[in-house]
């Protein structure tokens, strides 16, 4: 893409906005970086070094003097600057869209409500392992924390870019095309952004395969009712290949002869020429990487390997050593017979439910944060079954305690530190203290990573909390 001399406004100076601004400026565009809040000193210095004009504390009229605009994923469609751009018919693109235009590598795009970070991490490590043998490199970018734009110019033909994608990042990505697209599942989340409509949320996720062609492959979770219904052959004659994955041998959606499935305790790739066993689940399920949902994540990763033509040995090598992802049902330590588990990445109720289902015993649950339109009825049954005490924190504390009143013992905490103290007093040997918020972190923390790190720090220093 030739953008030399193009006037481009980049709205939002977070990681992705900064990376997009640098990429575009390096390609000869006239870039303006605009932030409604403040820009850090180090970031300002970098923009000056790159000779990129920037503004903070609000968007001036200069942002509308643009051929197109790159919009950060955290900016909602209702934001005044977005509305004004659309009123002026200025095209809006995501950072993902822009980076993909310069990408020479094969793109594996992975989205879903839950499991996308774990699946992306496993896929990246499998590609790394295979790349060491075959002579290519793998890059892990996107929603996982590293902007696609920051590394795209390092990628060569034959390399693999494993791009984790939120629904927000898939918005304003009209030509984004992964060679392999993955949808792990679709359950209620971010309904505050999508006016409470699951159809809008699902449509954003489905953008991942909108531009795929005959040579491409879609991998999807056939155990997910919404996905299974969407990918029924009679309704959708898709031009690309499809590899469903699922827990049951019949999890194929009825539309493709290839699939990845669980056959008893074995992971199997079913092909027209016959089944191929990959490995036993016992070979990768561990204390920090357990649960039915993680088997599903592994099935998705195996399906990606199948789509890329990667043999089973790199898959086995990676999975035998895989310990899980930080902040996702992460075992922190055992104190006096009580396991402490950090599941800060559980920012919705489906992720919380998965953590609860994985518990080997009853637990003290610490939950709460910024509510995203949660309906707690969806997890009420398993909370009653598994939880001996629910400690509520954050903005959603009152909503949680009101809903669960009379169902389980409850306690409100003014801070995460106080919640840990209450949990340490209540948990019995053999139980687990599970920090699985089920909500966003932005009421008390910069992000879920900061929230999880504080939890772990306090667990390791319980006496000082």
Summarize the structure.
The protein has 465 residues and is an alpha/beta fold. The protein contains 16 helices and 20 strands. The termini are far apart.
Describe this structure in words.
With 465 residues, the protein is an alpha/beta fold. It has three domains: 7-93, 3-Layer(aba) Sandwich (Rossmann fold), CATH 3.40.50; 100-321, Mur-like, catalytic domain (UDP-N-acetylmuramoyl-L-alanine:D-glutamate ligase); 330-464, Mur ligase, C-terminal domain (Protein-Tyrosine Phosphatase, Chain A, Alpha-Beta Complex). 33% of the residues lie in helices and 21% in strands. It has helices spanning 15-26, 41-49, 80-87, 95-101, 116-134, 148-151, 167-170, 198-206, 225-230, 292-308, 312-321, 349-358, 380-386, 397-404, 416-426, 448-460, and strands at 7-11, 30-34, 54-55, 68-71, 92-93, 106-111, 138-142, 160-164, 180-183, 217-221, 241-246, 259-263, 266-271, 274-280, 330-335, 338-342, 363-367, 387-392, 410-412, 432-435. The strands form three sheets. It has a nine-stranded mixed β-sheet, with helices on one face. The longest helix has 19 residues, at 116-134. The protein is globular and about 65 Å long.
The termini sit apart by: 54 Å
Q: Note poorly predicted spans.
A: none
Strand % is 15-25%
How many domains make up the 3D coordinates?
Answer: 3
The computed structural class is alpha/beta
| Radius of gyration using CA atoms only | 23 Å
Helix content: 25-40%
DSSP summary, beta strand count: 20
Overall form? globular
Please name the fourth-level CATH homologous superfamily of the largest domain: Mur-like, catalytic domain
At CATH level 2, the architecture of the largest domain is: 3-Layer(aba) Sandwich
At the fold tier of CATH, the topology name of the largest domain is UDP-N-acetylmuramoyl-L-alanine:D-glutamate ligase
Number of helices: 16
| Biggest pleated sheet | 9 strands, mixed
**Nearest-integer average pLDDT:** 92
User: CATH class of the largest domain, anyone?
Assistant: Alpha Beta
Q: Please list the strands of the largest sheet in the order they lie side by side.
A: 7-8-6-9-10-11-12-13-14
């Amino acid at each position: 893409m030739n953008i030399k001399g193009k006037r481009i406004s980049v709205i939002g100076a977070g990681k992705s906005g900064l990376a997009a601004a640098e990429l575009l400026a390096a390609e000869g565009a006239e870039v303006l970086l605009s932030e409604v809040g403040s820009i850090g000193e180090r970031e300002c210095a970098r923009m000056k070094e790159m000779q990129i004009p920037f503004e903070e504390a609000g968007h001036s009229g200069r942002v509308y003097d643009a051929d197109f605009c790159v919009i950060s994923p955290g900016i909602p469609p209702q934001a005044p600057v977005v509305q004004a751009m659309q009123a002026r018919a200025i095209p809006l693109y995501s950072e993902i869209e822009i980076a993909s235009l310069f990408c020479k590598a094969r793109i594996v795009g992975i989205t879903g409500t839950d499991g996308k970070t774990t699946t992306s991490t496993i896929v990246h490590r499998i590609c790394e392992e295979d790349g060491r043998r075959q002579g290519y490199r793998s890059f892990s970018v996107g929603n996982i924390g590293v902007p696609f734009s920051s590394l795209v110019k390092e990628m060569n033909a034959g390399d693999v870019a494993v791009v984790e994608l939120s629904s927000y990042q898939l918005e304003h990505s009209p030509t984004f095309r992964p060679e392999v697209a993955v949808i792990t599942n679709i359950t209620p989340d971010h309904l505050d952004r999508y006016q409470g409509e699951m159809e809008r949320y699902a449509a954003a996720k489905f953008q991942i395969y909108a531009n795929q062609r005959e040579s491409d492959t879609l991998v999807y979770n056939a155990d997910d009712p919404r996905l299974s219904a969407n990918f029924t052959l009679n309704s959708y004659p898709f031009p690309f290949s499809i590899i469903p994955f699922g827990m049951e041998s019949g999890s194929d959606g009825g539309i493709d002869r290839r699939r990845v499935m669980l056959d008893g305790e074995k992971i199997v790739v079913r092909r027209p020429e016959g089944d191929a066993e990959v490995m036993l689940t016992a070979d990768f399920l561990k204390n920090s990487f357990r649960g039915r949902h993680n088997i599903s994540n592994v099935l998705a990763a195996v399906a990606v390997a199948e789509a890329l033509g990667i043999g089973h040995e790199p898959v086995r090598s990676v999975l035998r050593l895989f310990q899980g992802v930080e902040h996702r049902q992460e075992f922190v330590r055992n104190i006096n017979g009580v396991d402490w588990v950090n599941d800060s990445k559980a920012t919705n109720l489906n992720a919380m439910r998965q953590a609860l289902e994985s518990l080997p015993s009853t637990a003290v649950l610490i939950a709460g944060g910024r509510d995203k339109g949660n309906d707690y009825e969806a997890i009420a049954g398993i909370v009653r079954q598994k939880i001996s005490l629910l400690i509520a924190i954050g903005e959603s504390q009152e909503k949680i305690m009101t809903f669960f009143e009379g169902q389980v013992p409850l306690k409100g905490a003014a801070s995460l530190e106080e919640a840990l103290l209450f949990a340490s007093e209540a948990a019995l040997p053999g139980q687990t203290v599970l920090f699985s918020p089920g909500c966003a972190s932005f009421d008390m923390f910069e992000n879920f990573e900061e929230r999880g790190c504080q939890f772990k720090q306090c667990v390791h220093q319980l006496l000082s909390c």
